[in-house]
Write a structure and sequence with these properties.
With 228 residues, the protein is an alpha+beta fold. It has helices at 2-15, 50-65, 75-78, 90-103, 130-143, 154-160, 170-182, 194-211, and strands at 21-23, 26-28, 39-43, 80-85, 107-111, 121-128, 148-151, 183-184.
Length: 228
């Protein structure tokens, strides 16, 4: 049964434009991370295979094929612990960007456009395992006391409940083992170039100008002509 799920997942990926190559008996999907203009990648962690875990295992198998009661959080996602810092002002957000560059840890930051996150800005420092997450948290919390340590993606917790209640099922182990035998998704480490970063910063400025009263830049658009 697990093999059937993987075959179907491959069909779903192909239907969505993925073009696998056969290498050493495995279908290999070469993908490049896409950050969009809301986020800046400070450093990429080669251990974080989010495309395999979220796109292949979770979306193409769990969400597309399994009944709700059998869906699960991939083991890789369950072992992801991130420190979250959410600055409340534009000046603080810019200071956080510089701090993250100097800290040089796998992380990203940007403006929060997701409707499920009640914040203007967000940053995420990625770690493998709870012990590593706690060690990283101790360092960051000294500079940013509002930091929190959480497990996995917010979307997964919304779908599957509190992360301390997540389980690993026999079906899950069977499916993930079959995926490991059949599919390879090499982790591509990629950071934005200067042109892309300029677009990111411009997106941030537009967002802050519209939503954040602490924005200290100049007006991005001319003022209205008024008649009263």
């Amino acid at each position: 049964m697990a093999k059937h799920y993987v075959i179907r997942a491959i069909e779903v990926l192909k239907a969505n434009g993925a073009k696998p190559e056969l290498q050493d008996g495995k279908l290999t999907f070469n993908t490049r991370p896409t950050w969009g203009h809301a986020w800046r990648a400070i450093k990429h962690d080669s251990r974080m295979n989010c495309v395999l875990w979220k796109t292949v295992i979770y979306q193409a198998i769990c969400c597309e094929q399994l009944p709700k009661e059998e869906r699960f959080v991939p083991i890789g996602c369950q072992n992801c612990y991130k420190i979250v810092v959410r600055p409340k002002t534009w000046p603080e957000f810019l200071k956080l960007e510089q701090y993250m560059i100097e800290f040089d840890h796998p992380s990203k930051l940007g403006v929060e456009v997701r409707r499920t996150v009640k914040a203007l800005y967000g940053s995420y420092f990625y770690n493998r395992g709870l012990e590593e997450g706690r060690a990283c948290y101790e360092k960051i919390a000294k500079r940013w006391p509002t930091a929190i340590l959480k497990r996995g993606c917010t979307e997964l917790e919304l779908m599957h409940g509190p992360s301390d209640k997540w389980q690993i099922t026999d079906l899950q182990r069977e499916i993930e083992a079959e995926v490991e035998k059949s599919i390879r998704v090499p982790v591509q480490t990629y950071l934005q170039d200067e042109k892309e970063l300029n677009k990111v910063h411009r997106r941030w400025e537009n967002f802050a100008w519209k939503f954040d009263p602490t924005y200290e830049g100049e007006d991005l658009f001319p003022k209205y002509v008024t008649y009263h």
